[in-house]
Amino acid sequence: MALPQLSRSLTGLLVGTSSIIQQRTFGVSPVAAAIQKMTRVRVVDNSSLGNTPYHRAPRVIHVYTKNGVGKVGDRVLLAIKGQKKKALIVGHKMPGERMSPRFDSNNVVLIEENGNPTGTRIKVPIPTHLRKLEGDFSKVLAIASSFV
Amino acid sequence: MLKSCVLSGCKKLGSLVLRRSVLPEQAGVFRSVCSIPRGASHGPCSLRRLAPSSAACQQRPHVFTACHLETRCYSEVNRENSHSEKDTGVSSEESHERDGDGAPSQRPVDAFTIDVLVSLLRQENAVDMCVIKVPDQIKYTEYFIVASGISPRHLRAMALYAIKVYKFLKKDGDRNVKIEGKHSEDWMCIDFGNIVVHLMLPEIRDVYELEKLWTLRNYDEQLRNIPPDKLPEDFIYDVDITK
């Protein structure tokens, strides 16, 4: 509670982190573009591919939009565990519209070529405005356990 | 206009047409559509006999839906009447039905409700249909239907027929008629606003177990088997951004 207020006052110098590392010596700029190539993402479903540990975090290598920026509901291509996998963005750190949820991590759900989700459950809250977007999201919404 | 087209289309069928000179009032037609699925025992046999007639009906695509619905109900009315084996008795019963309705007051299928969809899926021989009423706290949809099919072609046929009936009964309200997963062979879903239908093959249904998730919301076993997440040690919360 006190920590974000502190970080606001000392802009960029002191950043809220876990208790292990108290102080960092670099600043953090606010998020500029939501998800683009080379962003590290967090896989939020219970697939084995997304949850087994690997020495490299899953990274986006291609965003399937006109500009290379991915927002909620866009498909991306990830490099996970040395293989390529398509995924769907379900939340990003960048603020979107007013009164729409913003997440603390860039969340992604793994997807097959035909749109079926690779995992079977999603524990993380999923934004409900996915329903109004153009695209096939009913399958992902069907395996979600909580909505935001 | 629609009624006359339908009548002429049905005249082409020849063999299946009504033995009695009963004019197909629209109220009567839809009433029999509603009543048939409840007496579901006639369902499978009448469907198979219908195949040649509905093929004939396809020559007139613009009245296909109306003709389709009508032919189904006509043959089923015929079947039921033949089972009762009393010509005069049945005709009197039918006229009784019509008269009892009073003026052709529409108790027809006016809107695409859950009952229409369920009876439609039953007509299409959907296997293991499960309708879940979603509580209001989950602001997703009202009804969640999961049904299985026999083959990918069966799933596609069910989905397309549901879309067709929806388009026929649609008013100027909701416009979503997309089938999601049209290219996938094992899972198709349709989102009709207040109802969501998932058509899957039995194998993939066992993998996902959607009914379990949607009935036991947080007590679902697959959810519980997910190990709790831990934040990585160098996780950085952002500087507070206010636009």
UniProtKB/TrEMBL annotation, chain A:
Q: Which UniProt keywords apply?
A: Mitochondrion, Ribonucleoprotein, Ribosomal protein, Transit peptide
- List the transmembrane segments: none
Query: For this chain's UniProt record, which GO biological process terms are given?
Result: translation
Instruction: Tell me the organism.
Output: Scophthalmus maximus
One short Pfam name that applies is: Ribosomal_L14
Compartments it resides in: Mitochondrion
One Gene Ontology MF term: structural constituent of ribosome
Recorded name of the encoding gene: mrpl14
Task: Give the CC-aspect GO terms.
Answer: mitochondrial inner membrane; ribonucleoprotein complex; ribosome
Q: Which HAMAP family match?
A: Ribosomal_uL14 (MF_01367)
Q: Which family does it belong to?
A: Belongs to the universal ribosomal protein uL14 family.
PANTHER family associated with the record: 39S RIBOSOMAL PROTEIN L14, MITOCHONDRIAL, LARGE RIBOSOMAL SUBUNIT PROTEIN UL14M
Q: Which InterPro entries match?
A: Ribosomal_uL14 (IPR000218), Ribosomal_uL14_sf (IPR036853)
The name of this protein is Large ribosomal subunit protein uL14m
Q: Does the keyword Amino-acid biosynthesis apply?
A: no
